[in-house]
Amino acid sequence: MNHEVSDTMSRKVVTTLNSYKVTILCGLITILVLRGTLPGGSSGLGASDFEVVPKEQLVDTEDTLVGRRITRKLAQVDISGDSTRADEAVVEEEVWDRSKPYSLGPKITKWDEQRVIWNEQNKGKNASRNGKPKMMLVSGSQPGPCANPMGDFYHLKFLKNRVDYARLHGLELFYNMATINKEMNSFWAKLPLLRKLMLSHPEVEWIWWMDSDAIFTDMAFEMPMDKYEGKNLIVHGFHNLLFEQHRWIGLNTGSFLIRNCQWSLDLLDAWAPFGPEGENRVNAGKMLTAKLVDRPVFEADDQSALAYLLLFDDPKWKSQTHLEWEFFLQGYWKYVVYNYENLMAMSHPGFGDDRWPLVTHFVGCKPCQLAVTPEVEECFTQMERAFNFADNQVLDKYGYAHKALASFKTQRIRKDTSDPLGLKDETMPKEHNLADETLDLTFQEREFLRNKERVEQEEALKQKTQP
């Protein structure tokens, strides 16, 4: 009897212990699962660094202002307190002594000689795939997200446009989203970046800077680099406006090319002191307004500072600068976008000028601002048209085109063929459908015919209505 009671008690104890084990195991699993779902759980950040978002708010938050704010807050978390691995070297940023002129970094001398030696030691690296001196296309956008998600959307589209142009013309591409220098923000951020790239890429002969609000619209045009022998800076501008009238809009720095050489490093050194944020930039802006015709009163900008250097500083800046006006190294969007259909009717890619602009620059547009004003909506509309105008030139090779310049939707413009390279024996009979004759034309040829007919009809209507 006692033996049976003892066995019963033992079984109960074992059962209880097993239950506790299962409970503890489940608890541990639950903790691990919850820990894995907490934001920052695997990155060393505490839960207090994040705003907990209810599950119901995670669905379709992009359509609500609250959702956008949450997204921005999550994206802009300051991770400066994140632990650094022991093997990572961290260099403290140098603090600018405001009693001294601002500098982008240590003075570089004999850079041309250094590049010659480096390229001799690394033969072939300074040539592009087409055998020409290597060129790097450089652009960028702010590190954080736009207040308006549409701004990020068009940054992506414009980046795709740069990727296409660089691929078509054998250019290196560098797209920056990092803060290189805290004092040099806004439109001044390009200067420290250009200097870093020059010194880090001695194999690159030319750097082509393009603002984030500019887009290539002539995908066939190639820069005539032989034309710029003996020049180190190629910038869009007009000789009479700049050198005769001293207008601050005599040139534009939204798209320019600068040679990787000692002259350019010296120019950046002379250019940079106008740009540090704060009182220095404000005072420089007042001076530039006093010196340049029709310049409004605002803090110093890189474009006005370059105009000042070319007009009033060392003559060597002017002598080595080429003001390009023969084609649209940058074309003001309001002068260009409303004429795309007429250009398609009367012209074709490859000119780069008013017949087919190389670059359309959306100066004055603010795609990142949260408030969507009529001006911003018009910018978005025309940015879409400009992108599709350029994208059609890319898609044509693959037999597609956008249904309209204002539409992101595409349509097939050519049928697939069993002879894509056109190498079949000419004696072999080829299938041909008279109803599909226009499919043998390229997109540009068909658009040319269609728009030409439309323009002729409009002209005929005008003549009929004239007294």
In words, what does this structure look like?
It is a single-pass type II membrane protein. Belongs to the glycosyltransferase 34 family. It is found in: Golgi apparatus membrane. The chain has helices at residues 2-37, 65-75, 111-121, 149-169, 190-200, 239-244, 262-271, 279-291, 302-312, 315-319, 333-336, 340-346, 374-395, 443-465; strands spanning 135-140, 172-176, 206-210, 214-216, 233-237, 251-259, 321-324, 331-332, 359-361, 400-402, 410-412. By secondary structure, it is an alpha/beta fold. The protein has a six-stranded mixed sheet with strand order 2-1-3-6-5-7, with helices on both faces. A three-stranded mixed sheet has the order 4-9-8. It has a two-stranded antiparallel sheet with strand order 10-11. Strand 10 and strand 11 (410-412) form a beta hairpin. Helix 4 runs parallel beside helix 13 and helix 12 (340-346) packs across helix 14 (443-465). The protein is globular, with a radius of gyration of 30 Å. Mean pLDDT is 83; it is low at 32-64.
Structural class: alpha/beta
Question: Into which percentage range does the β-strand content fall?
Answer: 5-15%
Biggest sheet record: 6 strands, mixed
Average pLDDT works out at: 83
Gross morphology: globular
Could you tell me the radius of gyration in angstroms?
30 Å
Q: Order of strands side by side in the largest beta sheet?
A: 2-1-3-6-5-7
What is the helix content?
Answer: 40-55%
Q: What is the number of helices?
A: 14
**DSSP strand tally:** 11
Write the element-wise H/E pattern from the N-terminal end onward: HHHEHEHEEEHEHHHHEEHHEHEEH
Distance between the termini: 127 Å
Low-confidence stretches: 32-64
